[in-house]
């Protein structure tokens, strides 16, 4: 069972780790996808900017007063060409002939053939071809007004550190530039605008299109692998860290489980070896101050002297499945002590705590009956306390409670108010006493919301015909309040802490003489 929870913890840890990994990976892909989209846009906007700047430059030349092809005119053109790396030459046209120009030109000057396009924007374009080739590079010519420029198309894409990315620039259907220059790229018509994740080909493809001056398209392609490569180190570091955490978590759970397991074994040994002790906490009649009995509380001191709290070791025995052995051990001591107590204090009774598992079969009931009979004690010498969570809706527990009462035991519901039992639910069980939980008694005289709940609990008990015992009474003020509200019995440090048998006998003697 304990190892079961260790395995569950491991599976939970691994699942959590996987979930975190998946989210990190998805975020990485999303970031990269967004970046790939913005890559096409930024490359496209830059190319567009070059065209617009060039058009403005050419318009400026047309406005200049310098006599055409004069030294002044050519100097102005030269300055403009030098300051723009993508401009290889600037020329002046008269009618349909290039008259003069500057730049890196063949000896006979540029003699471009017929223009390829004349756009409504006033731009005239020559696609790169043999007649625009200078120094082995076919240039893109763009004329506006009476001037033109020869642009090195390779410089239209500022590629920067592209890594495994590929990008291309199209003007109309013509691929003007690409990086790398022979990059395999889909044509713009085959790609929808924006960003597309093409898992089949393992790429993210983005397209940017603009038609302000010329119709341009930029396609950028990014392999999904490169997303992994870029984020691999972060993911691996995260994974390693996560694995270390899961391993630590598992070791911790394993250690805890082993500790619990060895603790359970030690407890089982203590129960079998009759090393479980008990203490008695007096229950007092509030109207008279008489002690009418006590609650039996189990005590366990470990082999190394450590005193274990009962709510810890009772839960451990429940989890490990031998709580009935603990109940029977406590019962044996209580019956033995009762024979002594009853000689001096006839009519005294003790309350025995039953765990939910004690109400699942008849073992506790039959052993209790035979033990009492063997000791010559009447059944009313032992009252039974059942926690609210033991009042499960089972026919067995209902029948067993009925049997206990038929045999003459009073049955109390313990820690009432800490569970979710309603009045109508309680009605379905045959009970005698309702023990009001300490948390409600604590709230007496305080402004806490629970301070009102106790009033309802008392009324509820009354309407069901149940006697009431207030648990955890610590002050005279609480006692007074409980008396005023006609609560029958009280138990708590105000009267006494749990006592060994000798201490309890002393307590009873003092109360008798008081
Ligand atoms: N602060 C404070 N505490 C007070 C006061 N009056 C009583 N108590 C404590 O409240 C607990 C009352 O027992 P419980 O509600 O049945 O709660 C018990 C009961 O549920 C369980 N338990 C103890 N013995 C047995 C047993 O033999 N069998 C089963 N099944 N459960 C047991 O362990 C729980 C804890 O027991 P204990 O540690 O002995 O703690 C006891 C007692 O020492 C008070 O005025 N102030």
From TrEMBL:
Asked whether the keyword Cell cycle is assigned, the reply is no
Name the chemical reaction catalysed here.
Answer: 3',3'-c-di-GMP + H2O = 5'-phosphoguanylyl(3'->5')guanosine + H(+)
Carries keyword Transmembrane?
yes
Task: Write the Enzyme Commission number(s) for this entry.
Answer: 3.1.4.52
Q: Name one GO molecular function term.
A: cyclic-guanylate-specific phosphodiesterase activity
* EAL domain location: 260-512
**Transmembrane segments annotated in the record for this chain:** 235-254
The record gives the membrane topology as: Multi-pass membrane protein
Alphabetically list the UniProt keywords.
c-di-GMP, Cell membrane, Hydrolase, Membrane, Transmembrane, Transmembrane helix
Q: Which InterPro entries match?
A: CSS-motif_dom, Cyclic-di-GMP_PDE-like, EAL_dom, EAL_sf
Which GO CC annotations does the UniProt entry carry? plasma membrane
Domain of life according to the entry: Bacteria
Q: Give the location in the cell.
A: Cell membrane
What is the recorded name of this protein? cyclic-guanylate-specific phosphodiesterase
């Amino acid at each position: 069972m304990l190892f079961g929870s260790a395995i569950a913890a491991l599976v939970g840890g691994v699942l959590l780790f996987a979930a975190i990994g998946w989210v990190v990976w998805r975020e990485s892909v999303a970031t990269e996808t967004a970046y790939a989209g913005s890559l096409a846009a930024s490359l496209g906007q830059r190319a567009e900017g070059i065209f617009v700047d060039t058009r403005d430059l050419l318009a400026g030349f047309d406005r200049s007063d310098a006599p055409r092809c004069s030294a002044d005119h050519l100097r102005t053109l030269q300055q403009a060409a030098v300051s723009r790396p993508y401009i290889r030459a600037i020329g002046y046209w008269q009618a349909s002939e290039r008259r003069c120009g500057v730049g890196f030109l063949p000896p006979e000057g540029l003699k471009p053939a017929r223009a390829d396009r004349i756009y409504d924007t006033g731009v005239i374009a020559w696609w790169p071809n043999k007649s625009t080739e200078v120094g082995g590079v076919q240039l893109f010519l763009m004329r506006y007004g009476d001037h033109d420029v020869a642009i090195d198309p390779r410089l239209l894409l500022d590629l920067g550190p592209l890594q495994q990315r590929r990008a291309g620039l199209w003007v109309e259907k013509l691929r003007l530039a690409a990086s790398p220059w022979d990059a395999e790229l889909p044509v713009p018509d085959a790609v929808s605008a924006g960003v597309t994740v093409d898992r089949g080909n393992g790429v993210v493809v983005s397209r940017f299109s603009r038609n302000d001056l010329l119709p341009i398209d930029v396609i950028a392609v990014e392999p999904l692998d490169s997303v992994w490569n870029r984020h691999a180190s972060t993911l691996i570091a995260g994974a390693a860290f996560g694995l270390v955490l899961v391993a630590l978590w598992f070791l911790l759970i394993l250690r805890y489980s082993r500790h619990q397991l060895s603790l359970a074994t030690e407890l089982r040994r203590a129960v079998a070896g009759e090393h479980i002790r008990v203490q008695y906490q007096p229950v007092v009649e509030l109207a008279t101050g008489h002690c009418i009995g006590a609650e039996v509380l189990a005590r366990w001191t470990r082999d190394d002297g450590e005193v274990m709290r009962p709510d810890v070791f009772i839960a451990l025995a429940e989890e490990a499945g031998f709580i009935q052995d603990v109940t029977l051990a406590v019962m044996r001591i209580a019956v033995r002590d009762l024979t002594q107590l009853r000689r001096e204090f006839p009519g005294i009774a003790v309350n025995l705590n039953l765990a939910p598992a004690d109400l699942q079969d008849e073992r506790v009931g039959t052993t209790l009956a035979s033990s009492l009979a063997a000791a010559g004690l009447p059944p009313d010498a032992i009252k039974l306390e059942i926690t609210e969570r033991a009042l499960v809706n089972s026919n067995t527990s209902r029948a067993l409670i009925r049997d206990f009462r038929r045999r003459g035991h009073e049955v109390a519901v313990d820690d009432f108010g800490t569970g979710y039992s309603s009045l109508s639910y309680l009605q379905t069980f045959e009970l005698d006493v309702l023990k009001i939980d300490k948390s409600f008694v604590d709230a007496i005289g305080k402004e806490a919301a629970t301070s009102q709940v106790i009033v309802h609990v008392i009324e509820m008990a009354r309407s069901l015909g149940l006697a009431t015992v207030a648990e955890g009474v610590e002050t005279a003020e609480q006692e007074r309040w409980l008396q005023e509200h006609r609560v029958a019995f009280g138990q708590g440090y105000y009267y006494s802490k749990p006592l060994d048998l000798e201490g309890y006998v002393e307590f009873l003697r003092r109360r008798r003489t008081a």
